[in-house]
Design goal:
Layout: E1 10-15, H1 28-42, E2 54-58, H2 63-75, E3 80-86, E4 89-92, E5 97-100, E6 115-116, H3 117-126, E7 131-137, E8 150-151, E9 169-173, H4 191-202, E10 210-212, H5 213-226, E11 233-236, E12 244-247, H6 249-271, H7 275-292, H8 298-313, H9 317-334, H10 340-355, H11 359-377, H12 382-398, H13 401-418, H14 424-442
Parallel strand pairs: 1-2, 1-3, 3-7, 4-8, 7-9
Antiparallel strand pairs: 4-5, 5-6, 9-11, 10-12
Length: 443
């Protein structure tokens, strides 16, 4: 059981909510379903893929355009490929072939203006993705009556469900072969996908950490049976059913506070002097945060920051700097440059670079950070003063003692005024000022 790599995975959401053929009623719930599902699958911190890796084809009636964008998306998938369709299901031809209706599809003759399932199947099979999941929220038989998603060809019965099975993938459908898929009055989403969205958004109380395709199928089957709705159907091959489509948010909600408590305790252990022990604990905590909360959750990012900082405290500044560089790239992307955690990571990175002997690089980074912290927090904020103090220390090591002395005098003066002469931070700044002054006098 695992989460897919979001940067090596692709999601394709296809839906048709409006139809030009009067025989095919419009399905407003499909539009909301596709839009909300796209937001759910791409929203940090629990997102399955980045927004750029989610292709949405909603109410696109041009079959060629749909085919081209579908092929481009499936070709880019290396880990997980998820294709979801919502709309009218049409069955036609002597072989009762399944067609997925598009806005310009015709109920009586879907062969020339609908997406044939076999073509979708072939495109999925051609993908290099390790795991392929196809979700069909449509019916294969019945009439288009009221809010039903069905459109049954005159005199035709549905084809066998086995035709939907895709070798090496997992196929999940919203109804059995002789049932309709529904959009219930008063509900924002289609019945099947709406309950899928609810499971992904709210999680399963008492469920596992990750929700696999099989987990979702079993839960959907139970929920829809309890509500008297059409029963979903699944077909899987290999280990596709064990791929997780999301973190169980109910599990994460209950586990999050405990992980934060353990994180705080490990940080305090490091501050008390046991940086090596703290680093080991924080590594375990980060692994659990990544698995339970997701790699992009703020708690996970903060855990990575504390782990790297503890490694520096334990005497491994080069390793710490490498981890902090990677963390900083993620924080800039997810949190932005002015977020408090991003600014703190920049400072930790500079500190560890300095401890690793790269004093000039560290001073350069701290000089820029000092300006940013002054802009965001104010020139006399404790964090800004700490950055000024660290810049002075690194300048002193790098040969810039005159500038270091000027900065330290400023820090001492402000801290004496704000904190008092006996505060530990004031005493530390005064001691560093005396040390730099003594070194200059000796030279």
């Amino acid at each position: 059981m695992r989460l897919p790599d979001p940067h090596r995975s692709r999601v394709v959401l296809i839906g048709a909510s409006r139809y030009s053929d009067p025989a095919l009623p419009d399905l407003p719930a499909v539009g909301r379903t596709v839009t909300d599902l796209a937001g759910l699958l791409t929203e940090p911190p629990y997102r399955l893929v980045p927004e750029s890796h989610c292709t949405v084809l909603l109410d696109d009636g041009d079959l060629r355009t749909v085919g081209d964008r579908l092929r481009a998306a499936v070709a880019g998938a290396e880990d997980l490929l998820l294709v979801h369709y919502a709309g009218h299901g049409l069955v036609a031809g002597r072989r009762h072939t399944l067609y997925l209706a598009l806005p310009d599809s015709r109920w009586e003759a879907p062969e020339f203006n609908s997406l044939e399932y076999d073509k979708l199947r072939d495109a999925v099979l051609d993908s290099p993705a390790e795991t392929k999941v196809v979700v069909l929220d449509c019916c294969f038989s019945g009439r288009a009556v009221g809010d039903s998603l069905s459109a049954d060809p005159p005199g035709g019965g549905p084809g066998p469900i086995d035709r939907l099975e895709v070798a090496g993938t997992y196929v999940l459908t919203s109804a059995q072969r002789d049932q309709v898929a529904l959009a219930l009055p008063g509900e924002e989403h289609t019945a099947f996908s709406g309950r899928l969205i609810r499971l992904l958004r709210e999680g399963v109380v008492g469920g596992p950490e990750l929700l696999t395709v099989d987990d979702l199928y079993r839960r959907l089957s139970a929920v829809m049976a309890a509500e008297g709705l059409p029963a979903p159907l699944n077909r899987g091959a290999g280990t596709a059913g064990s791929i997780a489509l999301g973190i169980n948010r109910a599990f994460a909600t209950s586990a999050g506070p405990e992980l934060r408590r353990r994180h705080t305790a490990a940080v305090e252990q490091g501050r008390a002097g046991d940086w090596t022990g703290a680093a080991a604990l924080l590594r375990e905590i980060v692994d659990e945060q990544t698995r339970i909360l997701g790699a992009e959750h703020e708690d996970t990012l903060r855990g990575r920051q504390s782990h790297a900082h503890s490694l520096g405290g334990a005497g491994s500044p080069v390793e710490a700097a490498g981890l902090l560089r990677r963390l900083l790239a993620d924080q800039l992307r997810l949190l932005g440059p002015d977020h408090a955690d991003t600014l703190r990571t920049r400072q930790f990175l500079a500190v560890n670079l300095g401890e690793a002997g790269h004093r000039e690089e560290a001073a350069g980074m701290l000089r820029v950070l000092l300006a940013d912290r002054g802009r965001v927090l104010g020139t006399e904020h404790p964090h800004t003063l700490r950055t000024r103090h660290l810049l002075a220390r690194n300048l002193a090591f790098a040969g810039g003692r005159e500038e270091a002395l000027a900065l330290l005098r400023e820090v001492v003066a402000v801290r004496e005024r704000l904190l008092g002469p006996g505060h530990p931070h004031t005493r530390r700044a005064r001691a560093d000022l005396a040390e730099v002054s003594r070194v200059r006098a000796v030279q």
